[in-house]
Amino acid sequence: MLCLCRYHATVKFIRGGLVTRAPRGLQGETAETVYGLIGKDVQLDPKVIGTLSSITWMKGNNKLAEWIRGCTVEYFGRCRTAGRCDLSETTGVLIMKELKPGDTGKYSVDVNDLSPAEEFLLTVLGKLV
Fold this sequence. Notes:
Layout lengths: L10 E5 L2 E5 L8 E7 L4 E3 L9 E6 L2 E7 L5 E2 L9 E3 L6 E3 L8 E7 L6 E8 L4
Parallel strand pairs: 1-3, 3-11
Antiparallel strand pairs: 1-2, 4-9, 5-6, 5-10, 6-7, 8-9, 10-11
């Protein structure tokens, strides 16, 4: 139920707990690779064009967050615990806080019920020393 445009995947690198973009390779991948550190926050940033009317974030087959215009954001799974996730109703960005190893996996976002959904492959890394 999300409205996003997923034309080009990129690789994101960690900077101060959140991530910044770097150009992706030319391998034609469809999922955007994102790295996060245990205990830090990570931002999953869909490419959205136009006004959002609905957003649904999933990890695999499990719903994490859903918003439909006129309603409040609903959180599920790891995001159900207060303060673990923030979903922007204007950008579609999902910020996952206090990452754990179990957060590693494939995430997808559906914006305005457009398909296919944009995908992100999150890898949670141990703390660097």
